[in-house]
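Let us work through a complete example step by step.
Step 1: write down the sequence.
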Amino acid sequence: MSKDAASKGEIAFARLSDIEPIEIASHLSDPRVAAHMPLMTSEWDVETAAAFIAQKEQCWSRDGLGHWAILFNGRYVGWGGFQKEGDEWDFGLVLRPDAFGLGRRVTEKALNFAFADTRIPFVTFLLPPSRRNLGALARLGAREVGETAYGGATFLKYRLETA
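Step 2: predict the structure and record it as tokens.
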């Protein structure tokens, strides 16, 4: 998607349960997506996607917040949002390759939500070491915390104060 196309159009958040599992399975089967997801250790199919959706819906039930389906002009282009990890709200975003250009806009919309939500005093970001372009986090005001292990993989951890 060109920068011009990414700057136009409507971004909306929906529940992942509103998306057909085949859409999510197709998205997460793309090797360009998997390259930056060290916890992805198996193939994605409809059953895997349905289990993923159910797991994310449990977060909504438990915490009142979770990951959303990201829609651009009504079309599913990825998933992301906030998931509570212990006492921290971690932000994640996984876009389809044809929607990578929307990352900044989606992140800004989600962070505006976090700044307005009193449950979220700060947001953490866990990024795989394969991610090289980290300047956007600095521009947001996030500071590097260091490396952390999660699910058997190493991540670069950043924190952004929202309160």
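Step 3: interpret the result. Residues 3-119 form a domain with the Aminopeptidase fold (CATH 3.40.630.30).
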